[in-house]
Amino acid sequence: MDWSIHHVNIPAIDVRKTAAFLADIVGLPRGTWDYPPAEQMGKVGHDDDHIALFGTENRGIHVVKPIPTFARDNGFIHNPTVGGHFAITVPDIQAVMRRLDEAGIVYSDAGVYAMKGVHQIYVYDPSMNVIEINQIVA
Ligand SMILES: [Fe+2]
């Protein structure tokens, strides 16, 4: 299998509460977010009230507080902070984008903007769920 689930994004009204539940009740160790260099950084709005990571190398579970302006802030069509999403890592994101283009399906090409060495795009599946597709590029 040349693809994998990279992370699951869980929306949380209270990130600290959900993070405490996952850490203290479920027993998951907290992770540390790996950011890209400043010149690649998007407007992610990260702080302890907006993001918690469980996993390593940004893989695992992302607990996220919805940011209503996130799509506008970053020039996206999709807002990945609202409603949650899962992220699929593929070996060739350019091939996926070509197929999306050919099918006339709009997507937000975020490039590397939130996670070190990860090229991310967002798209709606046919049921209007936001899906993230990414490729490890470094
Ligand atoms: Fe994501």
Task: Write a structural description.
This protein is of the alpha/beta class and 138 residues long. It has one domain (4-136): 2,3-Dihydroxybiphenyl 1,2-Dioxygenase, domain 1, CATH 3.10.180. Helix content is 20%, strand content 30%. It contains three helices and seven strands, in the order βαββαβαβββ. The chain has helices at residues 15-26, 70-74, 93-103, and strands at residues 4-11, 51-54, 60-64, 85-89, 107-111, 118-124, 130-136. A seven-stranded mixed beta sheet has the order 2-3-1-4-7-6-5, with helices on one face. A hairpin with a 5-residue loop joins strand 6 (118-124) and strand 7. The two termini are 20 Å apart. The relative contact order is 0.22. The chain binds fe (ii) ion. The site of fe (ii) ion has 7 residues, from strand 1 and strand 4.
CATH fold field value: 2,3-Dihydroxybiphenyl 1,2-Dioxygenase, domain 1
Instruction: Using the coordinates above, name the CATH class.
Output: Alpha Beta
Structurally, the number of domains stands at 1
Whole-number radius of gyration? 15 Å
Estimate the mean pLDDT confidence.
97
Q: Please tally the β strands and state the result.
A: 7
The helix-strand sequence is EHEEHEHEEE
Q: Main β-sheet, in a few words? A: 7 strands, mixed
Strand order of the largest sheet: 2-3-1-4-7-6-5
**What fraction strand?**
25-35%
Q: How many helical stretches?
A: 3
Which architecture does the CATH hierarchy give at level 2? Roll
CATH homologous superfamily descriptor: 2,3-Dihydroxybiphenyl 1,2-Dioxygenase, domain 1
Structural class: alpha/beta
Provide the low-confidence segments as ranges: none
Percent of residues in helical segments? 10-25%
Which small compounds were modeled alongside the protein? fe (ii) ion
Overall 3D shape? globular
Determine the N-to-C terminus distance.
20 Å
